[in-house]
Specification:
Length: 296
Amino acid sequence: MKPSHRFNHDHFMVKPNKKVDLSDFDTADTNGIKNKDAAQEALQSDIESLSLAQELLWASAQKGVLIIFQAMDAAGKDSTIKHVISGVNPQGCSVTSFKAPSEEEKQHHFLWRPARFLPGKGHIAIFNRSYYEEVLVVKVHPKFLNGQWLPADFSEKHLDDFWKHRYKEINNWEQSIADHGITVIKFFLNVSKKEQKERFLDRLNKPEKNFKFSAADVEERVYWDDYQKAYAQMLSATSTVSAPWYVIPADKKWFARSVVADIITTRIEALKLKIPSLSKTQLDALAEAKERLLNE
Ligand code: ATP
Ligand code: MG
């Protein structure tokens, strides 16, 4: 197996209880990788390693992996997911996109929706956006709470405690998922406001990219600073030992893909999974089956 772990992962990981200020993070950082070609080579090798690591995950069926992607619009979630899992066996992997919740979903606890899509043993589940929208878009627009049938008082005074409570609920939930043998990996693709504008303009200028553009994205851009604040608070409150956040510089798409693939591969390899060894009875049954086939 080719070596993974090319990047200093600690450099991207948010330490538990660390107060995050996103202005400290360089969105164009490439961690010493000089150019696209070098990153491409690393990505290709990691895709191969990930493919092998996933086979082992599937065959051993002892652990699962939950990977969460959060980001502002046009940060590259979709294309990162597409590239990173291109070598993965689709039978052992699922991708769930979290759009605005349905009426039914709004009537339930906010963790009811994602619970159905958690990975079983041997599986990788990827969330393209996630329940974290409940402390991001919903925090920026508290009016969304109105549709949620929540009983408490949501005056300004109570809101602060409300968000703290949600962070705690998320941490507790992720802890119990981790205790169940699921590795939880969370990525925030950190794109700059300037780069987002370039990507929106690119979508507008190229007819073949027009379909990716949504006027609502430009509306939401007005709230950029509020989102940055909500992201920073969420990262500060919900990066834990069992479920850490990685802040990935995303102005260079080739870099973001490469480092995400490297972290996922390394985290799965670190599980040190083995093909299960068979018991004496199972081995005897195999020998008997072989003999029957040979004697047909
Ligand atoms: P793309 O634009 O690349 O297709 P996307 O993830 O931006 O991908 P959209 O359909 O554009 O998909 O956006 C989904 C929208 O749903 C986002 O604006 C997101 O904030 C919103 N959303 C997701 N979860 C919730 C939630 N729990 N409450 C309110 N809005 C939510
Ligand atoms: Mg969108």
